[in-house]
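FAQ: What does the model actually see?

It sees only this:
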Amino acid sequence: MKFVGVTNYKKSSDRLPGKHHNEFYNGKTLVDIKLEQLFAAGAEHVYISTDDTEVTNTENVTYVHRDAEYCNNVTRFSYVLEQIYNGVPVDDQQDVIYTFVCCPLFKRYDELYNAYTTTGRNHIAVHNSSHYFLDVNKRPVNFTFGLWHPYSQGIDPVYMFPYAGTVCKMKDLREANYMIPLEFEYFTMNQFEAIDIDVREEFELAQTLYKHYS
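And it is asked to produce this:
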């Protein structure tokens, strides 16, 4: 059984207006690039949940309408995900890769799917960082204050989950009603692949890196 891709976007973006429709690279938008990446990795079909009405279905891409009520920053996200997961016509037993379009540097969906099929375990794409982190209360997260703290090579990594990719059965997403299934393993990626675009600076940085690595 091959996988199908499931992704989503909304027309509005408070922090970066037009984020999903602005040209990102060579005439392509973030949505265009994510579709190319999923198909290049072997996706049979891609379903896109959106409130965008200026779209057209193709043989391999289906746009699933999502009401404006579920395309804002007010509605509880669990309700939004429920609409997305139940809106796509995908069987519970179908292998899916769920991703957001705002991580254009990550494209190794074939390797992500291979890790899933080889191990028989769900995987999420993460970036493992072994830097020193403090929380909002100025407390260390992955080390302790003092001259005894280890070199960065010796501390436990902290894992960033930038919504670049989750692979599992469709039923696992519906059961958890979240981007991460109840059980999973890590699929690690580098810090460039983990860039998640929210603001203009991240958009421009990702453009520069994409031109270099594409």
